[in-house]
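Could you please consider the sequence and fold following this short note?
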Amino acid sequence: MRKENKNNFNSIPKKLAILAGKGGVGKSTITALLAKGMLKKNYKVGVLDADLYGPSMRHLFPDELLPQAEGEKVRPAMSGGIAVMSSAYFPENQGVTVVRAPIANQVVTQFVEEVDWGELDLLLVDFPPGTGDIQISLLQKIAFDAALILTLPHELSAIDVRKSVLMCEQMGVPLLGILENMSYLSDPQTGKPLTVFGEGGGANLAKEFHLPFLGKIPIEPSLNCQEGLSSIPTSFSSAFQKVFEGLKKEKTCIINHEDRYHFSIEWLDGKKSFYRFSVLQKHCPCALCQEGKGSQDVKDVEGNKVVLVGRYGIQVAFSSGCSKGIYPFSLLREFDR
């Protein structure tokens, strides 16, 4: 007998992915501070630590109530009113630094399908560094409302962060904006900002991809100790407020049915692309059409309906021929390059 999937991810109103593309950017600390900030705004907040290779949320959120098994589900840990789930809570994962992709994907699937988050307003997902199988699996399994991209001021960080931006675009995940961390250190005597890691990386990246630049987060020595996470430093307030405001807005591409033969997509970066239904059908990605067995022989096929398929792509009900294919946004963007 098949077990009923009672995954409650879809019932969480807002789900935010936090990515950086590389390690050492301060992603986990920023995620923890965002969670605490949202809690102060009376949001019910959860944090999923998806960094299986270096889980740190258990350190950032002191233990109060550990994860509890309830039937086929697991209730997350609780710390200061925030629900937290991390592989660090499970003894078999302690000290594990090498995890093959298939095993890692199994753990990610368990986090998605077997954790009962209860009633949340917002779930923050701390992504592992990189743009590999785990990251793609997370973006496929969770319908994120937005992704926050974190970078450092120097170009070396931006090289890896670009890959995360492109991955989110290809997966159809709306981008909230670019947040630059460790932008400067305030001179303890003069208060003058010292740009110890260079400058301009975040703003340049935001300009390159036509994304909002959410601000600069300074180096805060107090955050080296656990008690430093008890409150958000005042120097973080402006940037974090932009994140909070951005989460309130619905971000999705707009599909317009121009006429019987054409439709358009208004992308999140402001670009508008036009497509002809007959041309699109010739690139149908379904298995039959890829094997040359699909029906695509109508010259001026019309489009009866265009529907969104999650945040991944679209499906078209053509007037004739094959209508089985799901066209990823990544493919549609390539058509208009």
